[in-house]
Design goal:
alpha/beta, three-stranded antiparallel beta sheet, 38% helix, globular, 17 helices
């Protein structure tokens, strides 16, 4: 994807940025860790828990530098990029620990620097290494990654692909109003700001309906239509794909020409700067995936998530950075695909969740050459909101999870108030992930026709839980946030740089 996404000019600017980063790194060694995932995957919670556990002596037995006592000091420091908003760690951790509420989700890019002083495990390295590593955590919405493939598509290709998806499966009903308006207006009608705005608003409403919790679809570019920020209402976000474009070029002064011009402006002023200034400067990446939500929503949501992850991974520049080439170019040498919310399952199903997630990305990782040592898949919970137990039911012992459902959650007709704990049996994921993906492939083979019946999926029972209550020590200090395999994620992403 890299030759398609960038021009010679883009590559030259990226090389200058990398040169500046590497020169600064000679004084203060640093690693840029990208944290992304589609909505509700838990990016904010992951970063908050990672930093909180490092700063507060969390239980991290698999993270070797901390376990062995080689890390002597950990602190937050001012980030190097003054133009990027700071990740508001203090606010997010207060929501988790003090209020027992989940922090607001990622809406834009942000950054946080945490620095570790350590003693190298190698006596030789201790002579030459400063024993200090700054980790620049870059948090950004996964929906922005889904925009990067647009750099290789012209307006016609973008329109054809978007409309084709919109006419299949559950999207067909959701897109009917937008497509009907687009057909009624006509591509060759004279350009009019009012028509452009109505069309863009209808298209945005369709994307939001696809993203709704009841459907949980994932492939929804352009990403900024769902997270406009300070671009809301700008011409760069006031466009829409058009169905069934005729052959030839857009007539001058037509609605088609206006939409095409604004689509190109979106790529130039929104997508390219994100790629050059942020994404192309990453060293390592974690992609958080809410696979349970997709499984719970059915085969179409699972198929859509597989496609979205393929689009995301296709944008990476995988490979090994040599000392010399890293001054002008930067490759992502480690990618972690993490299935979140493992605490919603009994531990007996964690390996099944990992296998399903590995299957979700297997085709994409083989295509970009990321299989092997540079890629790992795991199931984790950045914040463990439940504990495990067993109950007797009809003479059988069932593994259950116990937690406090969020106020308004409903289980077997009972609506919870956010204070009462309960035990639930979440159900079983299939031992063989192919049982799920055979159903997905059958849906794909039928082109996700609107009349195709939804395939049977496992009976699962997922509810949203409040963050756990943290006990205080005698000195009034709250204990670190509990987690599942956060230390394993740290070891894969950071361990070798602290060796």
């Amino acid at each position: 994807m890299a030759p398609i996404l960038t021009s010679f000019k883009d590559d030259a600017l990226i090389a200058l940025d990398n040169l500046a980063d590497r020169a600064a790194g000679l004084v203060t060694p640093s690693l840029r860790l990208g944290v992304t995932g589609l909505s509700r995957a838990g990016k904010t919670v992951f970063i908050s828990s990672l930093v909180h556990n490092l700063l507060n002596g969390g239980r991290l037995p698999v993270f070797e530098p901390v376990r062995s006592g080689r890390v002597s000091k950990i602190r937050l420091e001012p980030q190097p990029d003054d133009a990027v908003p700071r990740f508001q760690y203090e606010d997010h951790i207060a929501a988790l620990v003090r209020d027992r509420s989940w922090p607001d989700s990622t809406r834009a890019i942000s950054q946080l620097r945490i620095t570790l002083d350590y003693e190298s495990a190698s006596g030789w390295n201790r002579l030459f290494s400063p024993g200090r590593l700054s980790i620049d955590i870059v948090d950004y919405p996964g929906e922005w990654l889904l925009d990067l493939p647009l750099l290789g598509q012209d307006f016609r290709q973008f329109s054809d692909a978007t409309v084709q998806r919109a006419r299949t499966g559950m999207r067909a009903d959701l897109s009917s109003e937008w497509l009907g308006l687009a057909v009624a207006l006509g591509a060759s009608t004279p350009a009019d700001e009012g028509s452009a705005r109505r069309l863009a608003e209808s298209f945005t409403a369709y994307l939001k309906a696809c993203k709704d919790d009841d459907r949980s679809l994932s492939t929804l570019p352009p990403g900024r239509f769902l997270m406009p920020g300070d671009l809301e209402g700008s011409p760069a976000l006031t466009f829409s794909p058009l169905p069934d474009l005729p052959a030839g070029r857009a007539p001058k002064g037509s609605l088609w020409a206006m939409m095409e011009r604004r689509y190109e402006a979106y790529k130039t002023h929104v997508v390219k700067p994100f790629f050059r200034e942020h994404f192309a400067r990453l060293d390592r990446q974690i992609v958080l995936v809410d696979a349970l939500q997709a499984v719970n929503r059915g085969t179409e949501a699972l198929k859509d998530l597989e496609q979205a992850l393929a689009d995301v991974l296709a944008c990476f520049r995988p490979g090994v950075n040599s000392w010399l080439t890293s001054f002008v170019t930067r490759k992502i040498d480690r990618v972690l695909i993490a299935a979140t919310k493992a605490d919603h399952l009994h531990h007996e199903s964690h390996d099944r969740l990992e296998r399903i997630t590995a299957r979700l990305v297997s085709r994409a990782t083989e295509r970009i050459g990321m299989s092997g040592a540079g890629l790992e898949v795991m199931a984790l919970a950045s914040v463990r909101a439940t504990r495990e137990a067993t109950v007797d039911h009809d003479g059988h012992r069932l593994p259950v999870i116990v937690g406090t459902p969020i106020a308004g959650e409903k289980i077997n007709g009972e609506i919870f108030d956010g204070e009462k704990k309960t035990a639930i049996f979440p159900g079983d994921l299939p031992e063989d992930p192919e049982l799920l993906f055979e159903a997905v492939d059958r849906v794909s083979a039928s082109a996700l026709s609107a009349s195709a019946p939804e395939q049977a999926m496992p009976e699962l029972n997922f509810v949203r839980f409040r963050p756990p209550h943290l006990e205080e020590t005698r000195g009034g200090l709250k204990l670190s946030v509990p987690h599942i395999r956060l230390d394993r994620a740290m070891q894969f992403l950071l361990g070798d740089r602290l060796a």
